[in-house]
């Protein structure tokens, strides 16, 4: 599936605002993939379909989680976290995309996880820093994105955790695992 075909398949499922966000994520992800020499085709498809289920009905996503091999543990957390895992689960049956690397990048683009691949990090970060996002601290993360992918992802996940704490929201365990993993890696790289 080429870029145009993928965007045409995506378009009916998103509002204009969400579609425009997706195009900005795509452009940002492709810049990062070029800089870090990550597979362009996988980056393109993961970026295009990262929010494939973002605007689907919550009850539809809940039903898919319950009736699939996705962890029901997801249901203990805010439904905003569901769209990545559900999209990853439906990618092959609805779109014919079989790549486990693309599915994993989509699955974890909101929560993150420990030991993320380069593709995982690029999609996570592109979603966070795309030009339409404006909030305190975003410019620092954007500036770091082309210096150190790990450092930029660490800054992003740290900011996300702080935001969730300020809102007194539950924090998905994989998000904490991502924070701890990147913190350790950055400390180890600085001690060498």
In terms of per-residue confidence, which ranges show pLDDT below 50 for 5 or more consecutive residues? none
- In helices, the fraction of residues equals 55-70%
Rg computed from alpha carbons, rounded to a whole number of angstroms: 16 Å
Distance between the termini: 43 Å
N-to-C series of helices and strands: HHHHHHHHHH
Number of helices: 10
Q: Could you tell me the strand content as a percent range?
A: under 5%
The CATH class assignment of the domain at 3-135 is Mainly Alpha
CATH fold topology of the domain at 3-135: Hypothetical protein af1432
Compute the average pLDDT: 97
For the secondary structure, the number of strands is 0
């Amino acid at each position: 599936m080429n870029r145009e075909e993928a965007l045409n398949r995506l378009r009916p499922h998103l509002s204009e605002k969400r579609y425009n966000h997706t195009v900005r994520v795509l452009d940002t992800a492709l810049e990062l993939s070029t800089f870090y020499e990550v597979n362009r085709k996988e980056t393109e498809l993961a970026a295009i379909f990262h929010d494939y289920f973002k605007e689907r009905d919550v009850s539809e996503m809940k039903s898919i989680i319950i009736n699939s091999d996705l962890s029901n543990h997801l249901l203990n957390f805010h439904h905003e976290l569901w769209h990545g895992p559900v999209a990853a689960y439906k990618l092959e049956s609805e779109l014919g995309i079989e790549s486990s690397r693309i599915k994993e990048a989509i699955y974890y683009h909101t929560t993150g996880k420990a030991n993320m691949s380069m593709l995982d990090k690029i999609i996570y970060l592109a979603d966070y820093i795309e030009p339409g996002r404006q909030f305190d601290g975003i410019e620092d993360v954007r500036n770091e994105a082309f210096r150190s992918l790990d450092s930029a992802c660490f800054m992003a996940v740290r900011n996300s955790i702080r935001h969730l704490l300020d809102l007194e929201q539950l924090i998905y365990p994989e998000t904490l695992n991502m924070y701890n993993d990147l913190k350790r890696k950055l400390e180890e790289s600085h001690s060498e």
